[in-house]
Design goal:
By secondary structure, the protein is α+β, with helices and mostly antiparallel strands. The protein is about 35% helix and about 30% strand. The chain has four helices and eight strands; from the N terminus they run H-H-E-E-E-E-H-H-E-E-E-E. It has a six-stranded antiparallel beta sheet with strand order 1-2-6-7-8-5. It has a two-stranded antiparallel sheet with strand order 3-4. The N and C termini lie far apart (about 40 Å).
Length: about 170
């Protein structure tokens, strides 16, 4: 008895990219801010492209703190949803695939603390979230944001989230 042939890499990449697109395209606020997500394997990097509407203090100019916080919180929530979706996609069963393609139940913010480390300059910003703990009901996430240099963060945040039940 022979093993089934593995799927071609391009088919797997297309399925994963499509799942990520479905996940973020249904959130108007992500589109409003212009946030996009780059995927490398199971790792996501959020990108906040520079736009004049994001400037809070035109005298400096500096990114608005609210836009920065929204970017970090969005990154954390999408990372949590993506981690759950990734497990479903990789399970490969028809049931898991159907769940992955369904409209996601998003984690809900319990609290979110932002540390503004330096001025956000008028240029693109990047962020990555790391899930510190994710259980059935609760998750803790740390997010870091930078602009030109990954080692020079301009903001970081820690959030706690109420996770949706697996049954909705």
């Amino acid at each position: 008895m022979s093993r089934p042939r593995p799927e071609p890499v391009q088919v797997i990449k297309t399925r994963r990219d499509g799942a990520l697109e479905r996940l973020v395209s249904g959130v108007p606020y992500i589109a409003f801010l212009g946030i996009r997500f780059e995927r490398h394997g199971d790792e996501l990097t959020a990108v906040l492209p520079y736009a004049d509407q994001l400037i809070g203090n035109p005298m400096l100019p500096a990114l608005h703190g609210g836009a920065t916080a929204a970017f970090l919180e969005t990154t954390a929530i999408v990372e949590l949803a993506w981690a759950r979706m990734w497990g479903l996609i990789e399970a490969g069963t028809p049931e898991a695939q159907a769940e992955a393609e369904a409209r996601p139940n998003w984690p809900r913010t319990i609290d979110f603390t932002v540390d503004y480390l330096r001025t956000g300059l008028p240029r693109d910003a990047y962020a990555r979230a790391r899930i510190n703990r994710s259980g059935r009901r609760y998750a803790s996430v740390h997010v870091e944001a930078w602009q030109d240099n990954r080692s020079r963060l301009f903001a970081q945040a820690t959030g706690h989230f109420l996770m949706p039940g697996l049954d909705g």
